[in-house]
Amino acid sequence: MHIADQISQYLLSGLSTGAIYALIGVGFAIIHNSTGIINFAQGEFVMLGGMLTLFFLTALKLPLLVSIILAIAVATLVGIAFERLAIRPMKNASPISLVIITIGGSILIRGIAMLIWGKDTHALPTFSGNDPIQLGEATILPQHLWIFAVTVIVIICSKLYFNYTISGKAMRACAYNSRAAGLVGIDVRRMVLFSFAISAAMGSMAGIIIAPLTMTSYDVGIMLGLKGFCAAIIGGMSSGLGTVFGGIILGVLESLGAGLLSSGYKDAIAFIILLIILLVRPQGLFKKGDTERV
Amino acid sequence: MLKRATFILTFVVSLAILAGSALAAPPIKIGGLFAVTGPASFLGEPERNTAQMVVSEINASGGIKGRKLELIVYDTQGDATKAVQAANRLIKDDKVSAIIGPSTTGDTMAVIPVAEKAQIPLISCAAGSKITDPVKKWVFKTAQNDGLAVAKIYENLKRKKIAKVAILTVSDGFGSSGREQLKAQAAAHGMQIVSDDTYGPKDTDMTAQLTKIRGSGAQAVICWGTNPGPAVIARNAKQLGLKLPLYMSHGVSSKKFIELAGDASEGIVLPSGRVIVADLLPNSDRQKKSLIAFVKDYQKHYNAEGDHFGGHAWDALMLLKGAIERGSDNPAAIRNQLERTRNFAGIGGVFTYSPNDHAGLAKDAFVLVEIRKRDFALVK
Q1: What pTM was computed for the model?
Q2: What is the domain count for chain A?
Q3: Residues of A with CB below 8 A from B42's CB?
């Protein structure tokens, strides 16, 4: 097998894992952009998506589509409850304490999931079969196409939402200056609640479409959450294309690194990139110049 | 008046306690250290369950020499510091006669100095060969050495006239121990490792490594890991249309792996303890009786299939029972009798300990199985 064929497979594999990272990263970005905090429980929403779908599918014997819709709904409710119970009561808390609260929340959610569903890993059925699709010398699975499609749709929707709807614009206003936003009549607390609901829904959706490939268990959220966080950082916490490119860069570099260098350094590559970007371009790769928030 | 009442009460109570202890001999205390929670809980949970099951059964049938067993279990959470604390507690506060566990090699290595110093026999349920190599006076183990599994795979490859292999191991304790053994034994079996790759325990896509392997000229792939990684690898191999024979380790020898890998599991060959193929064994097999008893019991108590990991605890307790029956519950006597165990047919294999061998198993502790139509079949 020629090196060129190998590289085409590395790129394709990287692209498909990158899309997963991107989808999770966008969830981080949305909450960050409306509240200024990093929600480290984002990975747990990803886990909830997969585990809830599995629960509805196997324990309640519901059809796949119904299970998916229910799972997203329940995960969204968890996101809302999380904001109401853990974030909102902390009036005037500094962002750093809120970030720590989200870490605590993630441990709690993970623990509850472990108690309810146990520690086993489970596989979800794929949405449209297991027959690989040949692209030149490289192959992907139909499930990857689902991931690409959902990522694209989510990015387009969030772009439209944040730029063209009143509540989207209001959410952005809260990010720039929540006091000023409050003064012009925006209900800041409501916007924060919205952002948690949206990113919980998005995270759970990511968890559902990747579960047939990556499998799911109570603790999948940790690593996927971290990788999504990396993607969001590389993309400068943008809820649009920046994070998508961040995820894809991360995925492709991991895959090329594992294939061409050594697989032992795969995660190291990801986190070295993260460190370099935080040091050299803390505003992300794609943000122009100095965008210090006023 | 009050004083006299207190005195009488104290007298009566102490009399009652004395009488009670005179009627029933004190129980023999056995400590258990298992990683019931945390990343190694897939080992610790069945081990604890099995230990509790065996103890309650021994007690129900009258105990050992008329004395009941008392099992005191602490959760190490797969954390060496907690394991050492718990071991100290078992020895100093609970005053146990012997300890079963810990579940992982890391925990065991940390606990060994504690047991050696206190001179309490320790029967580890972890697989790492360094636990009993070199031999430590008070330390025994029941899990099969990884090296035995490696030898089993290499022998099969040799029979198929395959000499170039690619190895893909998980980057945790289990994987690195397997990787060491795979590399160490390659030359002796005439194997050449043409590609040596690893993956992270939480990785979700291994197509990059497999693509590299496809370009390396390997004739077979050996993957060393525990669920879910190997299931992802099996699926990735199918996705890439990789035609090479795929070998797995005994780390995935349970129905769970087949469930996770689905159709991609077809044709995969792996070394395994005999538990999962207990029904398929010929009646002449020495372990068959123990195996069937264990599987049935576990099914009855926990409504789940008994696995190897539970089997390690089963073996440890039964070895201990044998040692106490032949000697006494004194730690030194238990140790001496353990060392004299000969041909005990347990779950993990047929144990024969000696002063030079505290692992007690030979290569035949493993059988090779192939996954056919979502079930295990013996490879002749």
Answers
A1: 0.81
A2: 1
A3: 119
